[in-house]
Structure formats: C-alpha cells, structure tokens
Design a protein that fits this description.
By secondary structure, the chain is α+β, with helices and mostly antiparallel strands. Helices cover 31% and strands 42% of the residues. The protein has a single domain, classed as Roll (Pnp Oxidase, Chain A), CATH 2.30.110.10. It is built from five helices and seven strands, in the order H-E-E-E-H-E-E-H-H-E-H-E.
Amino acid sequence: MTHDNENEADRKVWKLMDDIGTCMLVTRVGEEMHSRPVAAYSRREENTIYVMTDVSGHKDDEIAAQPIVNLSFASPSANSYVSLKGKAAVTNDRAKIKELWNAFAKAWWDGPEDPRIRLLKIEPLQAEYWDSPGRMVAGAIMLFNAVTGKKADVGENRKVAM
C-alpha cells in the first residue's frame, strides 16, 4: 500500500467515525469484556477520540487495569462500520470538557463544570473499516451478482495502522 493510500484510508476512518458519532466502547474486566454505547468525539488533528464519562462509573477502574479498548462504530443504514483498537486514559481536562460540551452531554450532567465528568482519551492504534453503498444499492448489486454468477463487490474494507 502506498503512503497516499495509507493517508486516504486514515482519512476514511476518521470521516466514518465523525459521521457515525455513537459507538460501543468495549473494555476488559479480567477475561470478561464489557460493552456500552457512548458518544465519541473524534479529533483527527489530535490523533484522539474522546468519550465523556461519569466518575461513578466502572470505566475508570477497568481502563486503569487494562487500557487497551475497542470502539465499534456502526451505521447499518449507510452500510458503514469501523472497529478501532486504542489505548485509553482517564483525564479530568476541564478545558477539553468545556470544548466538547453539547446538548447530548446535558442529558447526563448539570454542565461542563459538573465535577462528576471525566474524559476518556483514546489514542488509536489500529482500525478496520467497511464502507459500502446503502442497503438498497448493495442489495441490488448482490442480487445482480447472484443472477450473473459474479462475486459480490459491494464496498471497501481496509485495515489501517493508526
């Protein structure tokens, strides 16, 4: 893969994460995995994905014990998916919390000064994405290929070192 293709794939991962926004955060507790939905704030220029979390949750302890996490983004209607492995750390960066504050966060906390808010700062290590035409187009392509005996080529799939 050329350097230009790597940059293009990297841009694609960041764009898909921005477009989808919500993901499943997967942490480990011993040998068990724990998943929960979170709002992800991707910042390509910082090479970081942020997640607001509550200090009373268990994520802090889980990440302290095992900092490698997975973020799984899915938009079934757009046929777009990203699975990202990253190294997470818990931070209390109040300036960043204020910067990321939005209406969604208001549903959980009183305001950006709420002392219960923490940030997960996730540094991407590796990602894989799948991006295909919408369901109807993909379905039509697969049906056409089934009738003609051709192999289905309904999108793009790449692994990306971040």
